[in-house]
Amino acid sequence: MPSQAINTSSRTPQVDDAGRLKHFLTIEGLDKAQLLRLLDSASAFIGADTEKQKEQASLLEGHTVVNLFFEDSTRTRTTFEIAGKRLGAAVINLNPSRMSTRKGETVLDTVRTLEAMDTDIFVVRDHASGTAHLIARHVPPHVHIINAGDGRHAHPTQAMLDMYTIREHKGDISNLRFAIVGDILHSRVARSQIAALNLLGAREVRVIAPATLLPTEIERLGVTAFTDIDEGLKDIDVIMMLRLQLERMEGKLIPSTQEYFRCYGLNRVRLNRAAPGAVVMHPGPMNRGLEIASDVADSERSLILSQVTNGIAVRMAIMAQLVDAAGVQTA
Amino acid sequence: MPSQAINTSSRTPQVDDAGRLKHFLTIEGLDKAQLLRLLDSASAFIGADTEKQKEQASLLEGHTVVNLFFEDSTRTRTTFEIAGKRLGAAVINLNPSRMSTRKGETVLDTVRTLEAMDTDIFVVRDHASGTAHLIARHVPPHVHIINAGDGRHAHPTQAMLDMYTIREHKGDISNLRFAIVGDILHSRVARSQIAALNLLGAREVRVIAPATLLPTEIERLGVTAFTDIDEGLKDIDVIMMLRLQLERMEGKLIPSTQEYFRCYGLNRVRLNRAAPGAVVMHPGPMNRGLEIASDVADSERSLILSQVTNGIAVRMAIMAQLVDAAGVQTA
Amino acid sequence: MPSQAINTSSRTPQVDDAGRLKHFLTIEGLDKAQLLRLLDSASAFIGADTEKQKEQASLLEGHTVVNLFFEDSTRTRTTFEIAGKRLGAAVINLNPSRMSTRKGETVLDTVRTLEAMDTDIFVVRDHASGTAHLIARHVPPHVHIINAGDGRHAHPTQAMLDMYTIREHKGDISNLRFAIVGDILHSRVARSQIAALNLLGAREVRVIAPATLLPTEIERLGVTAFTDIDEGLKDIDVIMMLRLQLERMEGKLIPSTQEYFRCYGLNRVRLNRAAPGAVVMHPGPMNRGLEIASDVADSERSLILSQVTNGIAVRMAIMAQLVDAAGVQTA
Question: pTM for this one?
Answer without folding.
Answer: 0.91
